[in-house]
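re: that chain from earlier
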Amino acid sequence: MADIATEIFTLARSDRARYLCALTAPRAKRDGMLALLAFDQEIARIPTLVSEPMLGQIRLQWWIDVLPGVTGGRPPGHPVAQALADLDLSTEELRGLVEARNFDLKQEPFTFEALCQYAEDTGGAFQVLVLKQLGVEDEQAVAAAREIGTAKTLAAFLHTADIEEKARNYIEQKLKSARGRIIPRKVKKAARPALLLARLIERELRLGAGANDLVGAVFSIWWGKKTGRF
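^ sequence. v structure.
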């Protein structure tokens, strides 16, 4: 990973669960996964960097404006944009991730249904792009990745008192659905760095704060890779 820009590495590592999964990918695929993860973290942190929603909208719009250049091989000097330019992604795919982040800037109360849609538009869509970087297009694998990514985003709301039970049930349903899909063995092996995320989500459901144990998380990923079980 010596050839990855420091900014990319730092941003990617801020999502530890997905970062650990990315480390299981073949070297030829790993850098692309880390670049994509850095992009996701870059836009996800925008609401925490601004003092009012309009400033966040301006930052998100900047990304929307530069994406055609990024996917067209003419990225601006931003390190994340330059890393993204090396990937085979469309403007529409990346734009969808950016636009979905406007939800984070809203100050009015949200419904559980709106939250689930947000989770699918962010985490679910992102996990599908991870699968694309791995060269996997199998429909069942794509559906599983979307369900796992959606569950990952919703897991951040597990400790929100008024929706905790709903969120837990929804996540469990998504993981059960993903694991029940019939995915050819060869495809499952290629998709493993995207699908292993399910193991860490399940750890969070089971252990709560205890899921933050790095050694336990690393072992869970290692065991999943060894056994082929996500």
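The mean pLDDT is 93.
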